[in-house]
What we know:
The chain is mainly β. Strands 1, 2, 3, 4 and 5 form a five-stranded antiparallel sheet that branches. It has no helices and five strands.
Amino acid sequence: MPANVTIYIYSLDGSLVRTLTKADQTTSYIDWDIRNTAGLPVASGMYLMDVKADGIGETVLKWFGALRPLDVTTY
Length: 75
């Protein structure tokens, strides 16, 4: 992955769920904790990801399936 990357994660209705950024040369990946900008776990389902890399371009992943781990402490 390039040094400067921004990933925008959207729900299927087009709402921005989270923005992830990477701005260093030493890391080759971005880790998403499957939470939204408020820090709450997102619902299971499909999400759109818009990936923009400085000097390279932009691509859109058509879908991404997320399955939340079971959280038995909230029952």
